[in-house]
């Protein structure tokens, strides 16, 4: 028996290594959140500048994820996972060794290029695991995304308080390096190859189209929302995105199938996804900055980074708890119901934060309401996409849905930071700035709830095996799913 054959018969070790890989990436999404005030001071920048440490990462991940996944299909999933982890580690080191904002952002962008880690892990599990263990393996990977996000809030705060923000990036580099070496030594390479072309042109054009409007938003507080520069950059971004759509239509193997994306159920679900993502990451920016602001401001709690992360932790646990409930509700009433309810809850939680954020208890309670809504909404999104597309397009369609969520998160974080920067007096944001930023995020989430109401019913039924593969929340014990699978 060869080594690879033995490994394929014992997937537990492979799952452990893949879990380390996924956890490294998941932690990187939120470990910097409690460190934002320290990053502002250490990098000598304001709210809109430091937010690029989040925005750059999210944009790079959004664009790179489908590209890296396609490369894995062509050249080997284990090989590309090692490359993605090595790239992630390299970006972490760049961010760790510098005190210049543009270099930290550059390092975060390189980290984001490792965004293919999750889809590559999913694909390895699908190819290598026994059929009866695929859904559990994918489910664990999906859970790690939420668990890592919550743990990152605590770890980031601890590292900032007891070491420095540089150690946030050193931790990511260490985890990714260990995972890359273990993957190369112990994870078997999948024999499955899918000849295809990589739409590099489409990825580059999409990156430019997404970045230009975000540059406009980040500088709007200093040059003005109605300035020629702001309007020009936004208009240029819209033109580039329109060009991207035209290019994708003429590309034989595009980054995204425009015809499928234009279908009303897919289009409306993606629109709702983007709007909910806006509210989620807007709050991630606002709450740590509010919590760590000095008490002398009249609104801040004056807590350290660890305590700021703890204020967000119950919300992260709420996301995990309400995700399975979304599947139960969706199985009985249709998946747009939990999406609508979740979007509305997100809006209500943000609205409550806008009018009442004077005590830590209020922030804890209202953040939990908001995060529970996000959990309901995010768990319903992949199911709605899967109901609307043929089985052979599920990977591409759910991948684009994740891309749209990252875009919404990028815009939300940048808009919230810009509102705070515009309200600043003597270098400190005002209470009115926080109120406005929470209110704007609430309004956007309310628009998501309205959009969800108008999602038309798809004509296709979901494919249970595919639901298992992508880790989507599905109703437990639904006999229709059992019949369809078996």
Explain this structure to me?
The protein is globular. The protein has 3 domains: 1-197, Up-down Bundle (Growth Hormone, Chain: A), CATH 1.20.1250.20; 200-252; 260-486, MFS general substrate transporter like domains (Growth Hormone, Chain: A). The protein has 21 helices and no strands. The protein is an all-alpha fold and 486 residues long. Residues 1-9 and 460-486 have low confidence and may be disordered.
Q: What is the H/E order?
A: HHHHHHHHHHHHHHHHHHHHH
What do we call the CATH homologous superfamily of the largest domain?
A: MFS general substrate transporter like domains
Query: What is the CATH-assigned architecture of the largest domain?
Result: Up-down Bundle
Number of helices: 21
Short description:
By secondary structure, the protein is mainly α. It is 80% helix and 0% strand.
Features:
486 residues, mainly alpha, Growth Hormone, Chain: A, 3 domains, 21 helices
Topology:
Elements: H1 3-9, H2 11-30, H3 36-43, H4 47-50, H5 52-75, H6 77-97, H7 101-113, H8 117-128, H9 131-162, H10 166-186, H11 200-223, H12 228-250, H13 258-261, H14 264-292, H15 305-333, H16 336-355, H17 360-388, H18 394-423, H19 431-453, H20 464-470, H21 479-485
Helix pairs in contact: 2-8, 2-9, 2-10, 5-6, 5-7, 5-8, 5-11, 5-18, 6-7, 6-8, 6-10, 8-9, 9-15, 9-20, 11-12, 11-18, 14-15, 14-16, 14-17, 14-18, 14-19, 15-16, 15-17, 16-17, 16-19, 17-18, 18-19
